[in-house]
Amino acid sequence: MDDKTIYALSTVYGKSGVAVIRISGQKALDAVKRMTTIDTAKIKPRYAYFTDIKDIVTRETLDKCLLIYFKSPNSFTGEDIVEIQTHGSKAVVSGVLDNLSRLDDFRMAEPGEYSKRAFYNGKMDLTEAEGLADLIDSETSEQRKYALRQMEGNLKNLYETWREELIKVLAYLEAYIDFPDEDIPEDTVFKLENTVFKLAEAIKEHLQGDKIGERLREGFRVVIVGPPNAGKSSLLNAIVKREAAIVSDIAGTTRDAIDIHLDIKGYPVMFTDTAGLRETEEEIEQLGIKLAYSKIQDADLVLCLFDASKDSVQIFDKIKKSFKNKILFIANKCDNLTFEQCSDLEKQNCVAISAKQRQGIEALLDKIHSYIEEQFTSNSNLLITRTRYREALKETLENLEMFNLKKEIELSAEDIRLAARGLGKITGRIEVDDILDKIFGSFCIGK
Question: Does 49 share its domain with 158?
Answer without folding.
Answer: no
